[in-house]
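FIELD: query
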Amino acid sequence: MDLAPNADDEEAGRRLFAHECRFVAAAAMPGTLPGEGVPEAAFAGRSNVGKSSLINALTGRHSLARTSNTPGRTRQINFFDLDGRLMLVDLPGYGYADAPKSAIRAWTDLVRRYLRHRAALRRVCLLIDSRHGIKPADRPLMALLDEAGVSYQLVLTKIDKLAAAERDRVLAAVAAEIAAHPAAFPELHLTSARDGSGIAALRAMLAGFALAEAARAH
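FIELD: result
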């Protein structure tokens, strides 16, 4: 279940995310993906799950990732460089989009190619709206990540909107389902972009990839 980071890990996360995070690339086709270098952490989830809001909360920026009331607004893979040590990757939302079916197929194929073949990808944060739990639209992506052996971790968003009893019920259901998925980490991250819950823990987890890369380099 959700685990709090130790003080050292939390401080490492705070220090990394205190640095500048800047938009560096937007890819709409496989040939436009930027070159690989630093470790990458990707954020995936249904449209309107709160993906952009969470990225903004992590980086302490109000408008780094564009938020919208229109589901399916993000139609490309957006790359954000964090201090030259970690790349945050915002994947298009799935499950709904006010766009032609041909366009939806194109960016769905792009995401699949990225997830299957990106060597720099260290972790996929799969965002789940805590009010609804895992939905049918989430399961194909979970199956793809399992099949491709891509490490992923469920991040429950909007946790501030749940009462304690409902939160415990949803957590139990989600934990039970992911136990059957070989590429999924059993620990859940509970977050709220609105009140900051769980942000420090998620920063600490993500900072671990930058620290591990730095250790290998030396």
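FIELD: remark
Helices lie at 7-17, 51-59, 101-117, 139-148, 164-178, 199-217.
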